[in-house]
Each structure stands twice: as structure tokens, then as C-alpha cells.
Design a protein that fits this description.
Elements lengths: L12 H19 L16 H21 L21 H7 L1 H10 L16 H21 L8 H14 L18 E7 L9 E7 L2 E4 L13 E6 L1 H8 L11 E3 L2 H10 L3
Parallel strand pairs: 1-4
Antiparallel strand pairs: 1-2, 2-3, 4-5
């Protein structure tokens, strides 16, 4: 499986700092007062308590990695969580961790070399990853209680990029990714909101030995006999890639072979 690109194009590091704080606060606010035993439909078999513990634990784990600037893959993920005894307290525990997370992100040089499981072997990888872990799970929490889940279009587009640039490396914990192969088919994810012109797009080629992201093309209509295109708002595409939406929903305009998309989504969940 080939790597996707030599470089990524993340947003300014300060954007991740602010957005992590905002998304974490929104998550904690949604979870506060919700029955910890209530299900989270977009995370099968998880309760709100499971989701809330996951978000708080990951943020503390990522903060530990950043503080240490680890140079090789850790052998253990054990960190001091100071988890409350009662699941009712989990949302406040998540909120209480925001100042520490913010302090770690401010103190970290985003260009510092460090180990990361994805493409970008610098500290900024973890700030970007923390944001989209938190943002997607904020949406999970909001949808589980019937609330609207707006996502900033610029953040959503960056989240699509972050997902796709790191996907070739995700086989480390999502083995099915390594089996995503094809016969030269191209999958295109293209941003286009209602009444808007076509925007940013990402193209991925499925080949016999794996898959790879293709260089950016000029904005416009993708073409090719073996091209399958999914067009939607950036926020909807982001949630589609994370398995929170189906390409068969009305929000998505699809051209090409649905079988190619079925193969894609059968192998890219993580």
C-alpha cells in the first residue's frame, strides 16, 4: 500500500488549538445531564458513558504523547486518568481537562519531530487528530440526543483531508484497510453545497496492490470511465467517511459504480 503524498496541507496550528477547546466544551455540554446508560446509535454497543470516557481518555493520552514528544511507538497506553467513580461525573471530568489540554497544545512546537501512526511525523499530527476525534464524537453525542450537529465547512474539508492522508497507515489498528484494493478504479470525494459551485476534491485510485491518493486535480467535474464520484457538502462528506452517513442518502450525489463505494466503505472504518 503506497503512501498518499509527501506533504499534508493542514490549517494553521492555532486553529487546531482553538477548535479542540471549542469542540471539547461543546461535547461536555451535550453529555451533561444525559443518562450515562443511554445508547449512542452511531457508535454501536456504546453508551454515553462509554463515549464520554473515550473522549476524555484520548485527550489525556494524546496530551501525554505531546508532552513527552515520544520518538517511537509507545508499548502501553496507560496514563493517569483520574476518572470519577460515577459516570454521571464524566462530562464534568472531560470539561475539567480542557485547560490542561489547551496548555499542552500551546506549549508544543507543532514542527517538533515525534512518532505518529499517520503520515505526518510531527507534533502537529496529534493536534489535528485530537480535533477530529473530538469533533466527530461531538456529532455522535448530539445526534444521540436529537440535536443539530453543524460543522464548520473549513474544518470539515480539513477533516476529509486528514482522514484520507492517514488512511493508508490505519491498517495498524484497522486491518481491513490493508485489503482495500481494486483494478484501477478511482473514487472522488468532492465538496459542493446546495446552490454552490464545485469545490475542493480528493481522488483515490484503487489498484491491485492497494490504494493511493492522486495529486490534486483542477476544480471541476471529475471524469473517467472508471471514476465514481460522491458530491456533497464538506460536513456531510466528513461524516460519510467516518461511517456516520450513507452515500445512499439524499444529501449525496453519486455518479459511477456503487459497487466501488460499497468496497470502499467495507474496508475503511476506523
Amino acid at each position: 500500500m503506497e503512501g498518499s503524498r509527501a506533504a499534508v496541507h493542514p490549517l494553521p496550528y492555532t486553529t487546531y488549538q482553538r477548535a479542540v477547546e471549542q469542540e471539547t466544551a461543546r461535547f461536555a455540554e451535550v453529555a451533561e445531564g444525559v443518562d450515562p446508560a443511554s445508547p449512542v446509535p452511531s457508535c454501536p454497543d456504546w453508551t454515553m458513558a462509554d463515549l464520554t470516557r473515550h473522549v476524555g481518555s484520548l485527550q489525556r493520552w494524546f496530551s501525554t504523547l505531546l508532552t513527552r514528544l515520544v520518538q517511537e511507538q509507545p508499548r502501553s497506553r496507560e496514563v493517569e486518568l483520574e476518572l470519577p467513580d460515577s459516570a454521571q461525573e464524566y462530562p464534568r471530568w472531560v470539561a475539567a481537562g480542557i485547560p490542561q489540554v489547551a496548555a499542552v497544545l500551546r506549549a508544543t512546537d507543532p514542527h517538533a519531530p515525534m512518532w505518529a501512526w499517520g503520515e505526518d511525523q510531527h507534533a502537529r499530527f496529534w493536534a489535528r487528530r485530537m480535533l477530529f476525534e473530538t469533533l466527530v464524537h461531538r456529532v455522535d453525542a448530539e445526534r444521540s440526543v436529537g440535536r443539530e450537529s453543524p460543522v464548520d465547512p473549513a474544518l470539515a474539508a480539513d477533516g476529509i483531508d486528514e482522514f484520507l492522508v492517514n488512511l493508508p497507515h490505519a491498517h495498524l489498528f484497522a486491518p481491513a484497510v490493508a485489503q482495500l484494493k481494486g483494478d484501477g478504479e478511482t473514487v472522488v470525494f468532492q465538496c459542493a453545497g446546495p446552490g454552490e459551485s464545485l469545490g475542493e476534491q480528493w481522488r483515490v485510485r484503487l489498484e491491485a496492490d492497494g490504494f493511493r491518493e492522486l495529486p490534486r486535480a483542477e476544480d471541476g467535474e471529475p471524469s473517467g470511465a472508471r471514476t465514481t464520484t460522491v458530491r456533497a457538502r464538506a460536513a456531510d462528506l466528513l461524516l460519510l467517511l467516518y461511517g456516520r452517513r450513507s452515500y445512499r442518502e439524499a444529501a449525496f450525489h453519486v455518479t459511477g459504480e456503487s459497487a466501488t463505494l460499497d468496497r470502499w466503505f467495507a474496508h475503511t472504518g476506523f
